Automatic annotation (TrEMBL):
Coiled-coil ranges (or none): none
Transmembrane segments: 6-24, 36-55, 75-92, 125-142
PANTHER family: MAGNESIUM TRANSPORTER YHID-RELATED (PTHR33778:SF1), PROTEIN MGTC (PTHR33778)
Span of domain MgtC/SapB/SrpB/YhiD N-terminal: 12-143
Family indicated by similarity: Belongs to the MgtC/SapB family.
Membrane topology: Multi-pass membrane protein
Organism: Modicisalibacter luteus
Pfam families recorded: MgtC
InterPro entries to which the protein is assigned, alphabetical: MgtC/SapB/SrpB/YhiD_fam, MgtC_SapB_SrpB_YhiD_N
Compartments, as annotated in UniProt: Cell inner membrane; Cell membrane
Key words of the record: Cell inner membrane, Cell membrane, Membrane, Transmembrane, Transmembrane helix
Record-given protein name: Protein MgtC
Length: 229
């Protein structure tokens, strides 16, 4: 096996390993793009960069040397632009919560790592792989121990003949340690149901649990929805 083939094997192998490690962390936490996706993205990026940097080899004698122009940066730009569509596919919004942003970012950086491995820039590629794994795993623990503010999308529905006054609703929310950030009103079911739609803020997630228990015991509320962001 020639030295050039060994170099290509190392570049593709390290790209596959780096993508697999990042994807393994994503799969472990049940994310939509996991082990196989990240491995394939990294290897594909490395492969495309190899195609660009070894253009003279695969063109061979079909063209004169003067006609062969290599610009790996254009290939890298195309890869990073195209990977944005794949990353966008794992992002979705549900209520106040946006899911998939971290997974999309991990796909994007995995593609960038594939580019580095593909051109043989192994030292920074290995460093960034380690940094990425630390960010995805250790920073998750750090985030879990930081003080947070919790938000919830809250809807209360009343039959039109027994609607609680807004002041009573606000007092009930405040009594459970929550703050109403926004409130809107809606008349539904041809005037039979009146709804308060709110965005709540609290410093303790248990306050939302207690609020839900209190709403469940109410005799005037027809139905409610409390979706934590």
């Amino acid at each position: 096996m020639s030295e050039g083939m060994v170099s290509i094997l190392i570049n593709l192998g390290t790209a596959w390993l780096a993508g697999s490690l990042i994807g393994l962390e994503r799969s472990y936490h049940g994310r939509p793009a996991g082990f196989r996706t990240h491995a394939l993205v990294c290897v594909a990026s490395a492969l495309l960069m190899l195609v660009s940097t070894h253009q003279a080899e695969w063109v061979g004698g079909m063209l004169p040397d003067s006609a062969i122009q290599t610009d790996p940066t254009r290939m890298a730009q195309g890869i990073m632009t195209g990977i944005g569509f794949l990353g966008a596919g794992v992002i979705f919004k549900e209520g106040l919560t946006v899911h998939g942003l971290t997974t999309a970012a991990s796909i994007w950086i995995t593609s960038a790592l594939g580019i580095l491995f593909g051109i043989g820039f192994l030292y920074p590629a290995v460093i960034v792989t380690v940094v990425t794994l630390i960010t995805l795993s250790l920073f998750r623990w750090v985030e879990g121990h930081l003080p947070n503010e919790f938000y919830a999308d809250h809807v209360i529905s009343y039959p039109i003949e027994s609607v609680d006054d807004e002041s009573e609703v606000r007092e009930m929310i405040a009594r459970h340690g929550c703050v109403i950030k926004t409130m809107s009103y809606r008349l539904a079911e041809r005037g039979k149901i009146y709804r308060y739609h709110m965005v709540l803020q609290t410093h303790d997630k248990d306050n939302l649990v207690k609020l839900a228990a209190s709403l469940r015991e109410s005799r005037t509320i027809l139905e409610f929805r409390l979706a934590v962001a």
